[in-house]
Amino acid sequence: MDNFVFYNPAKIIFGKDQEKTAGEWIRKYDGHKVLLHYGGGSIKKNGVYDTIIASLKANDLPFVELSGVVPNPRYSLIQEGIALCKREGVDFILAVGGGSVIDSAKGIAAGVLLNEDEDLWEDYYMFKRGPEKALPLGTVLTIPATGSESSRSSVVTNEATHFKRSMAADCMIPKFSIINPKTHYSLPPYQIACGCADILAHLMERYFTPTENVDFTDRMLEASMKTVINYAPLAIKYPTDYNIRAEIAWVGTIAHNGLLNTGRLGDWASHDLEHELGAIYDIYHGEGLAITFPAWMKYVYKQNPKRFVQFAQRVWDVEFSAEQEERIILEGIHRLERFFTELGLPIRCSQLHIDHSRFREMAQKIMVNRDHEGEFMKLYEEDCYQIYCLSE
Amino acid sequence: MDNFVFYNPAKIIFGKDQEKTAGEWIRKYDGHKVLLHYGGGSIKKNGVYDTIIASLKANDLPFVELSGVVPNPRYSLIQEGIALCKREGVDFILAVGGGSVIDSAKGIAAGVLLNEDEDLWEDYYMFKRGPEKALPLGTVLTIPATGSESSRSSVVTNEATHFKRSMAADCMIPKFSIINPKTHYSLPPYQIACGCADILAHLMERYFTPTENVDFTDRMLEASMKTVINYAPLAIKYPTDYNIRAEIAWVGTIAHNGLLNTGRLGDWASHDLEHELGAIYDIYHGEGLAITFPAWMKYVYKQNPKRFVQFAQRVWDVEFSAEQEERIILEGIHRLERFFTELGLPIRCSQLHIDHSRFREMAQKIMVNRDHEGEFMKLYEEDCYQIYCLSE
After folding, report:
1. Model confidence over B353-375: pLDDT tens digits?
2. What are phi and psi of B116, to 5 degrees?
3. A258 to chain B nearest CA, in Å?
4. How confident is the model over B266-320, as pLDDT tens digits?
5. What's the CA gap between A287 and A285, in Å, rounded?
6. Which of A82, A75, A169, A173 is nearest to A129 (CA)?
7. What gap in Å lies between CA A14 and CA A177, rounded to an integer?
């Protein structure tokens, strides 16, 4: 086990009707003028928007709105938000939506407090660095997936350069996040599937570590993966069952709040491989992960077969006899692919009509500003290219 | 799953040599004058005391010392600490030791800031209430057991009245806790056994809930219990194996930081039954729990046999056929008793030469200021008495 510092001060307010308390929490965290940041019209259709507006008004909180966040949130909207906050004297940001909205809000929160000579994109996102300070941020999570509601990180696409990059810092951890699983009922099934793939990916990226002697966090990760695997199909089948949605929502937050990678190095290659796919083809993050993760697994498993055996046995209940190591491993990966397929997700690029023509370009872009990619097995441009080929 | 708020801002600094940074962290949390609070001589023998003193001096932090905390920490020492802090203008408390030292420090931290008309014991401990504010507190954990290093609570014995009571509040969560498993090497085996029993009890108390549909936290609890069950005997057998100690230390903190009871009601009857034993007979908390927990289980399992079946199957790998429900349950409890016995702990009062003469008195004291005891099954005086009889 490696040395670590674990710190996550996000206050999670979880359960039925909790979004009604948004204004009170902003007051408790000393907000006076709010930027209400959200995506398209879904929060207006499901009533969350009206509830939040009522809560802000009931707490005498003036606010300005910035909507229009899209999946793979755009850097240009962040720039717009920064200018708006400065002009309006905003001192608290409330993000209402999924990970894209929250990531966009984090970019704005950090950007508002930068010095004149700092450039948010070039100085921070491009180097995975986080700034020292940010405006306080609260969230109302309406899509369980990215874990951004309690994470340190923000992932954004610069549409001018087609780079999708992340930055992370403690100052961007939300002060509070409100999670009401009932507000997730109206999500389309495909979006639930994508969200569950993202949650499972966050867990697997922590699981496939080069660090040894991490049994406790292994078991916590296995517990979390089993929860996603059991409840994701049920969430699609029974969209208005509160307890099913609650399981998915809570595991989604814990998957990415820092706890499950304590003392161990993660491997984020599958996420970064997906980021390049998403930057060029603008696919959903979760569907991209269902494609890149199995391909990555097939390329790297020989690096540490025992870990892949444990994954197959403890997570997927593969019970072939112990001598058949490779069969156990491949069956584990097969069951992962079968799980994604049952959720209705693609597991190959071709299913999204993406061919190999830009694989080399994507492999090159991954290596920009990086010595290597991944930790379970260190990857370079050619490795990434080969993994994309396996995903074709 | 119930609605919940989860908030734990304790910063955990975990790993080799981390105690050297204590002074730096106090500085970061704006401490200027420190109360160094500890127990007996063990931290002087294992070198931790010297390391801390050097760190305080290197960071120009003046300090006063208060030692003498004993297991089942005494309210009288807390009163002494409060007076000392007020006299010396202390603005930060550093607790170096196990749960008793940290619980004592929390009492002092809260007591220093009370108003003149408030009484720490009568107004707070006796009613399980926590105060609004407390001095900032840091810890260096030298005994993994109570989870007090990141919990909201403090358990203290009032030697004048023989009451052992707890209070809890967010303001008593330590700002930081330093955990170096190497500093646990020198603990006597029996103390490790007691600590592991306490950790397992914290997990079981969350596990045996009356709340339904809590599968994710069930699985996380099972993962944590398996870790304790696997590593506790190894920690005794191989006292200087870092990775074994690290597993125990980290699960000990997570067991009690609030995460694993999110959305579910716990049942603290076994702990409270032990508190009365400890208040009268001054036994170790962990050995008391090894006695009260199996007795409690035998008394309550018919309340919800399915939960006890899951405990036996998932935690203890009991694989009898499904029809034999009672046999499965009793085997699970038996394996728990066998585990305690293997650690060298008593599982009956008679092993500590405690007879039934004061069972009635203890059962009466539990009900003072309480409507009922426990939540999995609501207990009253006669129930508590019967459980003590089962533990004889």
Report:
1. 999 999 999 999 999 988 999 99
2. -55, -35
3. 12
4. 999 999 999 899 889 989 999 999 999 999 999 999 999 999 999 999 999 999 9
5. 6
6. A169
7. 8
CB-based contacts of A361: which residues, under 8 Å, 6+ apart?
Answer: A280
Return the HEC string of A337-373. Answer: HHHHHHCCCCCCHHHHCCCHHHHHHHHHHHCCCCCCE
| Chain A residues within 8 angstroms (CB to CB) of chain B | 1-16, 18, 212-213, 215-217, 219-220, 222-224, 226-227, 230-231, 242-243, 246-247, 250-251, 254, 259, 262-263
Contact state of B4 with A18 under an 8 Å Cβ cutoff: no
User: Across the interface, do A215 and B222 touch by the CB < 8 Å criterion?
Assistant: no
Q: Please answer whether residues B87 and B67 qualify as being in contact, where contact means their C-beta atoms are separated by less than 8 angstroms.
A: no
CB B265 within 8 A of CB B211: yes
Q: Distance (Å) from the C-alpha of residue B164 to the closest C-alpha of chain A?
A: 31
Nearest CA in chain A to B3: A15
Option in A3, A8, A246 nearest B16 (CB): A3
Nearest CA in chain A to B178: A5
What is the rounded average pLDDT of the residues A38-53? 94
Residue A21 DSSP class: G
Q: Is residue B171 within 8 Å of B134, Cβ to Cβ?
A: yes
Instruction: Return the structure tokens found at B220.
Output: 């996380």
With both helix axes pointing from N to C terminus, report the angle between A325-342 and A285-300 in degrees, rounded to the nearest 10. 170
Contacts of B277 (CB under 8 A, 6+ apart): B283, B288, B291, B292, B349, B354, B362
Task: Report the largest interatomic distance among the alpha carbons of chain B, rounded to a whole angstrom.
Answer: 68
Residue B14 has a pLDDT of 98
**pLDDT bucket at B129, cuts 50 / 70 / 90:** confident
- Nearest by CB: A5 against B11, B16, B213: B11
Q: Distance, in angstroms, between B222 CA and closest chain A CA?
A: 8
The residue of chain A nearest to residue B10, with distances taken between CA atoms, is A7
The tally of CA atoms less than 13 A away on the side-chain side of residue B162 is 13
B15 contact residues in A (CB cutoff 8 A): 1-4, 263
B328 in Cβ contact with B311 (< 8 Å): no
Q: Which of B145, B234, B141, B143 has the alpha carbon at shortest distance from B186?
A: B143
Other Cβ atoms within 10 Å of B47 Cβ, number: 13
CA dist., res. B277 & res. B391, Å (int): 11
Tell me if B14 and A263 make a contact (CB, 8 A cut-off). Answer: yes
Instruction: Tell which of A3, A4, A5, A6 to mutate to test the B interface (max B CBs under 10 Å).
Output: A6
- Cβ count near B116 (within 10 Å): 4
Cβ distance B162 to B281 under 8 Å? no
User: Smallest Cβ distance to B4: which of A14, A213, A243?
Assistant: A14
Set out the domains of chain A in order of their start, with CATH numbers.
11-183 (3.40.50.1970), 188-390 (1.20.1090.10)
